[in-house]
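Review form for a predicted model. The reviewer records the input and the model, then writes brief findings.
Reviewer: anonymous (R2)
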Amino acid sequence: MLPRMKGDYAMAEIKCTVTNCYYNKRLGCTAPTITVDGRNADESRSTKCDTFIEQKPGMRSSVNEPKDNTPISCMAVKCVYNDDERCEATDIVINGKNAKEPEETSCSTFRT
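Model under review:
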């Protein structure tokens, strides 16, 4: 594997079931970056998607298609996919049906 420069990220296929998120488009993500928090997490339900913004009536993301190259920062230091605060998973699933705030979301990909 080639060494990465600081700021380089692996790109994961993102599935987001948080359909009321501003960035959700057809179960994909239109955010420019994703940050998963859970510094003290021992299980997935102790993580959260800090990028989550609840979509209010009239709000729409200006990005029409989910991105396939979204950098994912990961603060869940106990996760096996965390490499220097970058997510190295090939697929990531964010859950949080009817979330109102980031704490009601989670990264289901989290593993210890």
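Findings: The radius of gyration is 13 Å.
Further findings: Residues 1-6 have pLDDT under 50 and may be disordered.
Recommendation: see findings above.
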